[in-house]
Amino acid sequence: PVINLNIVSNKFVFEHWQNILKPLKEFDMKGVATLNIKATGPTAKLNINGKAALSGASLRAPGIVPRVTDLKADLSFTNDTAALSGGGLKMGATDMEMNGTIRNFAKPQIVLNVKSQNFDLDSLLPQKTPEQMKAEQKASGGKAEQMTDAQMQAAAEGPINAMKKNPMMRGMDFTAHADMKKITVHKAQISNLLAEMTFKDLVMSLKKTSAQAFGGNINMGSTIDFRGTEPSYQVVGDVNGLDINAAVTNQMPMAKDSIFGKTVAKISIAGSGVTKGRVKQTLTGTGHVEIKNGSLSALAAMKEIGNKVSGLPIPGIKDKVGSINVSDKFRQLKSDLKIAGGKINIVNMIADMEGANTTLYGQGWVDFEMNNSISGKVVTPAGGDVPADIRAADGRMSIPYEIGCLVTAPCFKPDQTVQALGKAYAKSEGTKALKKAVEGIDNQQVKDLLKKLPF
To answer: Global pTM?
Structure first.
């Protein structure tokens, strides 16, 4: 059979058709479309050419709070291509513009360009009031409802397996470019986002991504590989001038106000799996971070040093160590990071403390439950002669410290510090007493013999 068919509609009003086409009524779709479709030739090799235009359209989208309005698009298509131009929509204060092409519907090659002056995700999604959150927490016995690892695994496996079995998804070559001037998510402001995302051979990649957020510049790239038995991923990135408290508070509210300062950092991580357990097992990475003019709540616990050592039974100990000035403030803090075993391991940490000529050295870890363990040495000036056992090469006092508990509620563990100070000053005072006693001996031979003893 040979077909010669032409369909033209100069004004297809969605609202008039809502009682006939169920989807139009379900989404309360309004607006106007125009159609011009031609199909010619034998059915075995049918040639299709068409154009469609959408204008003044609006609808209610499931899960989106504001109504989608100002929906418009021009579409032209043939047997194996489609081109979108002039696409756009609004959702409350959010706006989007779109254009793109699709080639080869069997193995789609898709290019999509998206632009937005303002994308407010917070206003698009339903937000729970504090009263609703308290009511839900009370109903669950005071515990936030969370999915188990098994539930997370089951929820992720279904869509992933379906995607891997779909011939069209396996053959898809997708590239999207985004230019977003302003994004609001979880009350965080992200501006000037430029990104390129690709999906090919079941590998999703994020390239050439940059943005400004939390007062700093962010650059990153990532890949998610769906070809294996479980998804594997890699992420690299760097930040410059980032307000670390704003970033940490936005991503981990439980750690609010635990660290302040402007941050420069680089990080590279890799792992696999979708559950918390698998992430702990597989996540590895390296990084380096420098923070300027800030404070760290973990260091606030070290203010206890003066109180702990002042009670030692050593004459004048309070005067000797009273000049130690350790607080949570620092001019600069830098450290290498290694991620493994469910922990962020802190390596070679150095902090230039706000206290006069005080330096902090350390190492330790922070786990995914926000537990932390950091230990090292405080090098600081001290009153009087510093005992040799705790004297640094530059003459300052060097004493050990240990911090534990939670990042949000750190605790100072004084045993190492107190023992080192007590032992060093007790030994120093004992040596002074022995020297004084030696000087009082009249027998020169005994005096010479005692002076040769190592203490």
So the answer is: 0.77
